[in-house]
Amino acid sequence: MTEHAGAEVGADGAPDDRPRCGWARGALDVAYHDAEWGVPVRDDDRRLFEMITLEGAQAGLSWATILKKRDGYRRAFHDFDPARVARMTARDVERLLADPGIVRHRGKIESTIQNAGAVMRVQRAHGSLSTFVWDAVGGAVRTNRWQDMREVPAQTPESVALGKALLEAGFRFVGPTTCYAFMQAVGIVNDHLVTCFRHGEV
To answer: Which domains does the chain have, with CATH numbers?
Structure first.
């Protein structure tokens, strides 16, 4: 996710002058930034599946748009239970194309269902999606020390490798840029700027 310094409101909507990554401006962004973004997610395959889905859905859109639709995604895709999502049918796809609670893009909807099946195959082969994605990047959090948003890359060799591994496992909408945003979101990398109060906390 693109970053720059500064923020305007706190998670409760009240003024809050703690220094943050600059994409966190509205109340939803700030709450997500302060509580979730960059926190390592291990042993929670539903959350990892959710973030792969949401980062893929973001392509061409703002993250704020996706956050506003997050509850809609959870309703539409059975709280990201991969077994239930994998059983969804073409009829479900047609129904979801009319659902304003999600991004109504056929390819993104179909990829979520396909990715659910891929999650289950990965779980059978590797024990969990968590093990699979963390092993693909060496298992350890990478903490960066960016001073300026212009330093933050859109992709890295690790995100290219993770995207390749996910594609080979049957996932879609997992290009290297999407994978890097996913890695930022689930704390595989800590890309809070050093000026952000969350950098040291996560």
So the answer is: 27-201 (1.10.340.30)
